Amino acid sequence: MPVGIDDISFYTANFSLDLQELAANNGSDAAKYTVGIGQERMSVPGADEDVVTMAANACVPLLEGMAQRGEGTNAINTILFATETGIDQSKAAGVYLHSLLKLNPRCRVVELKQACYSATAALQLATAWVARKPQEKVLVVASDIARYDRQTPGEATQGCGAVAMIVSANPRLVALDPETGIHTEDVMDFWRPNYRSTALVDGKYSTKVYLRCVRSAWQDFQQQSQLQFGNFDYFCYHLPFSRMAQKAHNHLANGNAHELSAQALEDQISSSLIYNRITGNSYTAAMYIGLISLLDNTALDLAGKRVGFFSYGSGSVGEFFTGTLVDGYQSMLHSEGHQSMLASRKPLNYAEYQTMYGFEVPVDGGDHAFAEQTNGKFRLAGISQHKRLYEAR
């Protein structure tokens, strides 16, 4: 019985900053961004957006699709919410999500954390639970806001986004294989202490660790599976920035793909990079936005094609796993909605970006209403007595 991703959608903020605008105002060469890291724009969240509202907005197309097909949501008995920019040290962000979506109270909800990797941990847990009870479905959500100190190298790799996935038996999108390759190593390449709102990163070191991890996870995968590099048609990598995926793919191909040209290798990943270039880093959601980008932007019929996935979370944990596109997967895509959402984002000038960057959720316990900035269905209306107040529009 196959188990995997039955449906998938993503959401990002409706504001964006062109990196040429950033470069023009911080003294950098724009080519450092557009060529050096392969990025063009980054999504910028409004004051009334956080990981919960983005997650809820990402879920809307999935729930609407279930309703249109006459499928009830009562089969969703688990929500796994992956994030590294959580909003509470105790309460899972997924509980707020469960309430906004008005899901069945017969549902377990937890939050998972390990840098950018935890969505993959959630996906693997979900497949195991569905294999145990095939009649049930698991809602896996990855939602993050990548934020770094201004005037630092990391500033250009900011972004935000959320991905929602329904994991089920007999999936209509991607059937996942049970064999995976994993690697964990305690390093300090990227971290964010509880007392900081922005991350700390050693960029050059993190790149080295990422490449070391992809090699080790691949080697472990080869111990678990008979599949070789040549058995894969496409690859999706964790995307802190697009150029990182290209580096990782060339690194993995070295010694494993003698018969493939440089163009053939590029073709295996190019479609997966399109959305990331204009949304920026979204941490746990990044690789899965890459999968959506591959599906939305590849004209060829991908049914039966095998995809290799490498998920990486600094600190560090990596996993290589595989999936095959299911016949008729096109009926489950939300391409038009994704592309309309991206095209309708409002461009920010540098002054507007500075103002939005400077917003912080008040911590005084008072009553605060937030300006209505997002055009999503769900928003963070304000905060009162340290309680977040969400609303559906």
- The percent range for helix content is 25-40%
Number of beta strands: 18
N-to-C span: 40 Å
Mean pLDDT: 96
Give me the Rg, rounded. 20 Å
Please report the number of helical segments: 12
Instruction: Give the class from helix and strand content and strand pairing.
Output: alpha+beta
- Low-confidence segments, given as residue ranges, are none
Topology as H/E string?
EEHHEHEHEHEEEEEEHEHHHHEEHEHEEE
Q: How does the overall form come out from the CA principal axes? A: globular
Query: Beta fraction of the residues?
Result: 25-35%
Sheet bearing the most strands, described? 10 strands, mixed
Outline the structure in words.
The protein is an alpha+beta fold. The mean pLDDT is 96. Helices cover 33% and strands 25% of the residues. The longest helix has 22 residues, at 203-224. Helix 3 packs parallel to helix 4 and helix 6 (203-224) crosses helix 7. The chain is globular. It has twelve helices and 18 strands. It starts with a strand and ends with a strand. Strand 4, helix 4 and strand 5 (108-112) form a beta-alpha-beta unit. The protein has helices at 19-26, 30-36, 51-68, 93-101, 118-132, 203-224, 242-253, 262-267, 274-279, 286-296, 335-343, 350-357; strands spanning 3-11, 15-18, 41-43, 76-82, 108-112, 137-146, 159-169, 174-176, 181-184, 190-191, 200-201, 234-237, 306-313, 317-325, 346-347, 367-369, 378-384, 387-392.
